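During the second half of the funding period, the structural biology subgroup turned its attention to how the target accommodates small molecules. The most pressing case was magnesium ion, which had performed well in the primary screen but for which no bound structure existed. We therefore specified the complex as follows and requested a full 3D prediction, including the ligand pose.
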Amino acid sequence: MPSLSEFELIRRFFTHPARSAVLGVGDDAAIVRARGGRELIITTDLLVAGRHFAADADPGKLGHKALAVNLSDIAAMGATPHWATLSIALPGADARWLAAFARGFMRLARRHGVDLVGGDTTRGPLAVCVQIVGDVPKGRALRRDGARAGDDVWISGTLGDAALAVAAMKRQLSLPRRERAPLGQRLDAPTPRVALGERLRGLARSAIDISDGLIADLGHLCERSRMSAVIEFERIPRSAIMERHLERAAARTALLAGGDDYELCFTAGRAQRGAIARLARRLRLKLTRIGRIVRQRRGHALVTVLGADGKPMRLARTGFDHFG
Ligand code: ADP
Ligand code: MG
């Protein structure tokens, strides 16, 4: 890297005080102190330019998102995040780009008490790999395989806005300019539901974060739990912008099967409805019950979506639509 040596780059942009670590950036590896009686939760996500983001993406937003998608996985486990590593391949050492990237990354890290304790830096096609280590009290992690027949299915926030932004970018549907900005914000700067995940321990029976779309991710939860889900289209939480465009198949597809939401989908027994409503008020976060977990039946889909008329909808090539 001509303008900036690798070591200079690491020192300037990626060396920050790591209060929660015994030893952070600068040695061959980091040292952290595990707390007694807790289990470590480890997750990582690799983002590659041209596949997960555009090569000319805003670096500050990229720094935020690279960490946010990992925090979302930590949240879905009901864990508390502590330590992150950042491995990055860069085509060149552009100080302005790096400063903006590090700012976006560190701002979100600080908000969640996460210390950047190490990583790797190399020249190469732009790619960013973040790993986070968190912890939970022993045996208390939220998993995908805990759903039981009769559980309610819940969703945090609203779904589909990020996918709607992508659909507009691909010109699958046209949106007025004033709608594109807030949707773009949902795509570029997702809010990982970390506080929700932590407080769902002992309340939810299973959880997953929605990164590949509601149908796919709820399907994964059902598969792991050996259950099915029946949800109601009308109950699926959506933004006012999404509501305005739901006449269009592309919008319905974004709501049901879009991606990049980074909301939590979780299941809980009926007895928890009151506690979950109180939690929503305390966190000032919308939590919506959209359906229930049922036993699997041969020949039935893992996830059935009922339309306003009570009849199952199906995913056509152009989007979700009613039979016939
Ligand atoms: P090594 O050659 O032993 O892999 P490096 O020279 O790659 O060590 O890294 C030196 C130190 O800088 C290590 O502590 C490493 O974890 C840290 N580091 C390297 N790149 C990054 C990065 N992008 N973000 C945070 N820490 C980094
Ligand atoms: Mg190295």
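Two results from this model are relevant to the next phase. Residues 10, 14, 25-28, 86, 88, 116, 118-121 surround adenosine-5'-diphosphate (ligand 1) (CB under 6 Å). Residues 59-76 form the longest helix (18 residues).
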